[in-house]
Amino acid sequence: MSQVSDSTKEKIALKGFGVPLQDLQSNMQGFDMFSDGLMNPAVPLPDGVVGRDGHPSEKRFGVYRNNVMASLIDAMAANFPAVHDLVGRDYFRALAAEFVRKHPPEQPVLSEFGGKFSEFIGAFPPLADYPYLKDVAVLEWAWLRVYHGPNATPVAPDVLSKIDPAKLGDAMFTPIPAHRLIYSRFPLSEIWKQNRSEDVEGVTPEADQVILICRPDMDVTLTGLAQDVAAFADLLFFGKTLGEAAEAVSSSYKFFDLSQALGCLLSARVFASVDVKA
Amino acid sequence: MCAQRVNAKLPARGGVGLKADHYHSILNDKPDMGFFEIHAENYMGAGGPPHGYLEAIRRDYPISLHGVGLSIGGADPLNKEHISRVKDVADRYDPGLFSEHLAWSTHDTEYFNDLLPLPYTEVTLQQVVDHIDEVQTFLGRQMLLENPSAYVIFKESTYEETEFLREIVKRTGCGLLLDVNNVFVSATNSGGSPEDYVDRFPVEHVQEIHLGGHAPETDELGYPLLIDAHDRKVADPVWALYARTIDRAGPQPTLIEWDANIPTWEILAYEAEQADVVIQSHIETQAQASQKRGDHVPGV
Ligand SMILES: [Fe+2]
After folding, report:
1. Region A242-249: what's the mean pLDDT?
2. What would you measure as the largest C-alpha separation in chain B, in angstroms?
3. Which contiguous run of DSSP H or E holds residue A272?
4. B81-125 pLDDT per residue, tens
5. Does residue A38 sit at the B interface (CB-CB below 8 Å)?
6. Which residues have a Cβ under 8 Å from the Cβ of B176 and sit 6 or more positions away?
7. How far apart are CA B175 and CA B251, in angstroms?
8. Within 10 A of A2 (CB to CB), how many other CB atoms are there?
9. Is pTM, for the whole model, over 0.95?
10. CATH number at residue B121
11. Burial (Cβ within 10 Å: 0-12, 13-18, ≥19) of residue B163
12. Which residues in chain A are contacts of B74 at CB distance < 8 A?
């Protein structure tokens, strides 16, 4: 690379508009100062940003501080309504404020803000006695990703009747992109029903739960899966053939019922296509 | 998929911000509404219900696309990925207009989700001009720039806001979105005259108008401090200022912004009808005046 002289660098910085470099620098400092005060009330008010008497005004700058914090907390409440209801409004706002200060959004799409919230909750000492909250946040984040995920048309639940039974073992299942599998040792489906007023299909009585979230059309659906069905689904999603997946799962779960498992996943409409390997 | 859509062009009528609360009323009742405005950032997911509803609504109504996250007024380079996501939304819905704010919202990777103010100087002028050039080039279309609402005054500003905007238009060829409530809020907060502002505004470049509700407060010195809250009806003095604006700028697509404490569809639609009433009475007054002068009035 060729050497760039200092004067050339300066010209690039100025983009040829005759603005002295020191003005550019002090301009940048102005933005720095304004930004620093937004999330941290302990930072002094930015210089030269004033009210009608020519002096900095706590109340006026406070409008921006309040807008920033309140709107980001609102966004978190919209993305995590069940966590909000479980801890209560006041606690949630304090918790979300802590989170926002530690992990402010890095881009403007707020439905994509809060990916680190479950981790934050899991590591938040005052919530150590409520370990299920982290999993609720994981589930809500997954729900949001599925809700906004790509559309795809699922195959009809009777798709297997069109496949030659002799070749069924070679069938490969491609899931629709809008799906997630969430594992938890807590009764998430109960928590979900109570706090999001949405049903969860086919829930098993065990506390250890796997929930399949998917969006076969416009509505997001949740289906509770037994451990063996979840293990089977996971292998199919990973690209294993029906035969390979069934064999692997049968070896660790001796009561695995293949046709029941397939029925469950097909009626959840999580597959976009079923193809037989040539 | 987008076979039978109405024309993209926005009529010079009242329109409203599209809210999820109203998706069903709109699709079931097909109300008579000039247009809907959407926030680009709310339609940046890959798929799902927001796109399903908007696709259906777009068949029957033109939309204007309003960005809140480009940070045009900031000192940092624009977020390229975000511009490209704005373009995706524009390509998907063919909006009649695209607008953004004379404000910033991102600094050093942090996104503040608020429209923050900037001083009006030679340096910031050049930054804004460069950013608008970049956006218009990338999108391949003209954008409108909206005047902000402000709660503070920058001592270092060397331009009046109206002159700053005029200069931006001259250097970029962008259009303007005149938010009349923002004019009222900013002028009141800084002790200026909203009427003077409207009278000085380069109205020949205005292609859209915003109206919204504000919350009245006071600062620690007892001066009025209006908050651009978009949480209530448009205030009476703002309607009066709007009529003055229409007399200067002519009939324009006029959006009612109501983003918090969202009302029923009927209340929101009523606000948009009030804008239609003002536009209609302006048109009638113009027609009467030109009849008196003996001008030829088309269609009369
Ligand atoms: Fe506005």
Report:
1. 97
2. 61
3. strand A271-276
4. 999 999 999 999 999 999 999 999 999 999 999 999 999 999 999
5. yes
6. B144, B145, B146, B147, B165, B169, B201, B202, B205, B206, B207
7. 16
8. 4
9. no
10. 3.20.20.150
11. middle
12. 31
Interchain CB distance below 8 Å, A108 and B113: yes
Shortest Cα distance, chain A CAs vs residue B288, angstroms: 44
Q: Residue B247 sits in which domain range?
A: 2-292
Both tokens of residue B121?
Answer: 């100087």
Q: Mean pLDDT, to the nearest integer, of A253-259?
A: 95
Residue B298 falls inside a structural domain: no
CB-CB contact of B156 with A30 (8 Å): yes
DSSP assignment of B64-96 equals EEE-S-S-TTSSSPP-HHHHHHHHHHHHHH--S
- Residue B291 C-alpha to ligand 1 middle, in angstroms? 36
Q: Report whether A192 contacts A222 (CB < 8 A).
A: yes
Contact in structure between A177 and A149 (CB atoms under 8 Å): yes
End-to-end CA, chain A: 53
To which residue do tokens 């279309």 refer? B141
- In the 8-state DSSP scheme, what is residue A88? -
Instruction: Provide the number of structural domains found in chain B.
Output: 1
Contact B82 A215 (CB under 8 A): no
Cα-based distances in Å from A159 to A162, A171, A212, A267, B163: 6, 11, 20, 11, 67
Of B227, B241, B249, B173, whose CA–CA distance to B12 is shortest?
B249
Give the mean pLDDT of A110-130. Answer: 97
Residues paired with residue B176 on neighbouring β-strands, in sequence order: B145, B206
Q: What are phi and psi of A157, to 5 degrees?
A: -60, -20
- Residues shown for chain B: 300
Q: Decide if A106 touches B, using CB distance below 8 A.
A: yes
At position A84, the amino acid (one-letter code) is H
Share of chain A above pLDDT 90, in %: 77
Q: What is the ipTM of this complex?
A: 0.94
Pair of tokens at residue B136: 């218009």
Average pLDDT, chain B: 96
HSE (CB half, 13 Å, CA atoms) of A223?
24
Among the partner residues A38, A63, A218, nearest to B151 by beta-carbon distance: A63
Helices marked H in chain A — which ranges? Answer: 6-14, 21-39, 58-79, 81-87, 89-102, 117-122, 132-147, 188-196, 227-237, 242-252, 258-267
A273 strand-pairing partners: A174
Ramachandran class of B53: left when φ > 0, alpha when ψ lies in -120 to 50, beta otherwise: alpha
Q: What is the pLDDT of residues B236-267, one digit of tens each?
A: 999 999 999 999 999 999 999 999 999 999 99
Q: Report which of B139, B137, B143, B150 is spatially closest to residue B175, judged by C-alpha positions.
A: B143
- B131: amino acid identity, one letter: H
Nearest-angstrom CA–CA distance, B202 and B149 = 17
Determine, yes or no, domain membership for B300.
no
In this structure, is residue B299 part of a structural domain?
A: no
For residue B297, is it within any domain?
A: no
